[in-house]
Amino acid sequence: MKNARLILLLIAAVVAGGVAARLGNGQAARASEPQVASPQLVILDTDIGDDIDDAFALALALRSPELKILGVTTAFGDTELRARLVNRYLAAVGRSDIPVAAGVETKTDNVLTQAAYARQAPALVHPDGVEFLLSQIRAHPGEITLIAIGPLFNVQAAIERDPATFKKLKRVVMMGGSIDRGYDGRNGERRPPDAEWNINRDPAGARALFAAGVPIFMMPLDSTQIHLQTAEREAIFAHGSPLTDQVTLLYHQWRAGTHSPTPTLFDPVAVTYAIQPELCPAKPMRIEVDDKGFTRPVPGAANAQVCLQSDEKGFLRLLLARVAGE
């Protein structure tokens, strides 16, 4: 009987050990999964509709559980038409719950390459994008990340209208500027610093932002010229989800007005920094903006954290996993 009892105790111990091991393995597996206890509150300020990278940036933001998008504000040129584009995009992916506001309209002769897509959305009266931004900051002081991926007219207007409220942003993550690297040449050759588009459309807005006293994380041309080559493009376009279908439509409208089939994904790098900053390590700099839109590092106390080199392979893995993943 003693031997029988001993055998039963040994069997029970083995079974218990196996259960504990399985539980432990399950806990370890869960621990390795990304945990999103409290998503960041973000507003995306975008000039979507010209280049195609804004559409990819919005797709990445929508597919990132680390972010809670409080709204999208449109910047530069015909901001009402850009807002209609965002409306159609969000409705198609089942996210009409995200507010869309039209920012400061400006004169431009720049071609809105995706205007046909936008014009198929209902014409609505959108709220004032600048007031929307300020009202959200008042409602969530110290909590909002503004991801600014267009010319800074809305930012400039918000600072002029209510600088004290604007200063209550948690931070601004921006795509813009050029430190050591300008726009790459047609054959991929590196060129000297340029007056980058988002900054040179509104240098005064950039100067106002750098003087606003808000933490700034800057993704310049140095770290954002990541090209979406054929294999990666086809993986996204062939995925067939409502989200990738919208990106595909917008890509082909953009492609019809450009000579290159390969988009440069400037703006999604700013979204990536908001969720995985290790892919674009930043260092403190003091940035000065001249009247032509050049952004130059100068001596003095830092007014921005600047990423000069990104992990391009890591970025592309993240983009494909999020946008074309299950």
Keywords:
single chain, 326 residues, alpha/beta, Inosine-uridine Nucleoside N-ribohydrolase, Chain A, nine-stranded mixed beta sheet, 9 strands, disordered N terminus
What would a concise description of this structure say?
With 326 residues, this protein is α/β, with parallel strands linked by helices. It contains 14 helices and 9 strands.
Q: How does this model look, in words?
A:
The chain is α/β, with parallel strands linked by helices and 326 residues long. The protein has one domain: Ribonucleoside hydrolase-like (Inosine-uridine Nucleoside N-ribohydrolase, Chain A, Alpha-Beta Complex). The chain has 14 helices and nine strands. Strands 3-2-1-4-5-6-9-7-8 form a nine-stranded mixed sheet, with helices on both faces. Helix 5 crosses helix 6. It is globular and about 50 Å long.
Topology:
Elements: H1 2-32, E1 40-46, H2 53-62, E2 67-74, H3 79-92, E3 100-102, H4 115-119, H5 129-139, E4 144-148, H6 153-161, H7 163-166, E5 171-175, H8 197-200, H9 203-210, E6 216-219, H10 221-224, H11 230-237, H12 242-256, H13 268-275, E7 282-289, E8 295-298, E9 304-307, H14 312-323
Parallel strand pairs: 1-2, 1-4, 2-3, 4-5, 5-6, 6-9
Antiparallel strand pairs: 7-8, 7-9
Helix pairs in contact: 2-13, 5-6, 6-9
Radius of gyration: 23 Å
**Average pLDDT value?**
91
Looking at the chains present, what oligomeric state does this protein adopt? single chain
CATH first level: Alpha Beta
Note the overall shape: globular
CATH superfamily: Ribonucleoside hydrolase-like
DSSP helix count? 14
Strand content: 5-15%
Largest sheet: 9 strands, mixed
CATH topology: Inosine-uridine Nucleoside N-ribohydrolase, Chain A
Which bin fits the share of residues in helices? 40-55%
What would you call the structural class?
alpha/beta
Which residues form runs of ≥5 with pLDDT under 50?
A: 1-34
| CATH architectural name | Alpha-Beta Complex
Q: Which H/E pattern describes the elements?
A: HEHEHEHHEHHEHHEHHHHEEEH
Strand elements, count: 9
In total, the number of domains comes to: 1
| Order of strands, widest sheet | 3-2-1-4-5-6-9-7-8
